[in-house]
Amino acid sequence: MLPYGRQSIDDSDIAAVSAALTSDWLTTGPRVDEFERTLADFVGSGVEAVSVTSGTAALHVAYAAAGVGRGDRVVTSPLTFVATAAAATLLGAEIDFADVDIDTGLIDPDSVAGLVGDRTRVIAGVDYAGVPIDVPALRRAAGDVGALIVEDAAHSIGARRGGRAVGVAADLTTFSFFPTKNLTTAEGGAVIGSDATLVAAARAFKNHGLVRDRARQRTPDEGPWHQEVHSFGLNYRLPDVLAALGISQLARLREFAARRDQIVARYDAAFADADDLTTPVVPADAEPVWHLYPLRVPAERRRAIFETLRADGIGVQVNYIPAYWHPVFEDLGYRRGQCPNAEDYYRREISLPLFPGLGDGDVERVIDSVLRAVA
């Protein structure tokens, strides 16, 4: 079975992890500091990176740093993995699902504007498939309520929108480094921001809320071992072993992105004239780094096409069931039909194999299989 995604590991990655395993540090140590510095430098000037254990942890940390709590509302897209909404719900927030643009699958600022209110704490946009959201448009949609913009960039590290790198425009940006993503630390993620207060809050939450700075402690004379917890947090610390892999992978991220671009271009050309297929749409000012290739097929035939491709050894996937379709949200009162564009996009979407190690012959195999399946 040809998978829809796969990590790209070479000898340099193995050497980096091996060196970390034989060092004095396995958990959080100097390689975590180096990874965070390297990641921040990659994103752009003026930002800091806080590494965490997963993309879901990154969302949880970002929402906590933004002050999301009981009584707050978070506006987000339903066309995403459930964690984008669930992480805010776990902090006590209520979710308002905004519809998406029917062409791009990105959160629609006009839909957001209709949901924003005095209790809106965060607007969380999702860089679907690797195409960045329009952060300035979301700020305009927020009006004067003071909502922060969180960019769920699990798909899009290295991408740009309006000439600005992902991670620079939003108040907080979250990355995922799961194996199928554009770079991997096996499991891992990060929160990126330029506001020192938000970054400090993120760093505290991911480390139990511990305060080791004597100037901030209430009883600093307790002893040189002393540490305090001023607000609750969790252990979301990335270990040095995984940070070492991340440092190595970052050095090849542009190479990964270039190969993904080549594959997407070949898919686009192959399917451009097929009446029953819709290829991904990219806004004019966006420079994506492709994580998924979301091909859209006739909704009434999607399941048959999916099963035919799987039977042919093509490991296609569907991304994503609208978040509020999950029973956990249905049980909170959410109902199908509230975001028709997102639901239409979901009913037609199939993600084709896309990863740097996908050879030209594999790409042609996918194309031939898709064209036969939809014929």
TrEMBL record:
Its cofactor is pyridoxal 5'-phosphate. It comes from the Bacteria. Keywords: Aminotransferase, Pyridoxal phosphate, Transferase. One of its GO terms (molecular function) is pyridoxal phosphate binding. InterPro entries: DegT/StrS_aminotransferase, PyrdxlP-dep_Trfase, PyrdxlP-dep_Trfase_major, PyrdxlP-dep_Trfase_small. The modification N6-(pyridoxal phosphate)lysine is found at K181. The keyword Secreted does not apply. The keyword Secreted does not apply. This is Aminotransferase class V-fold PLP-dependent enzyme.
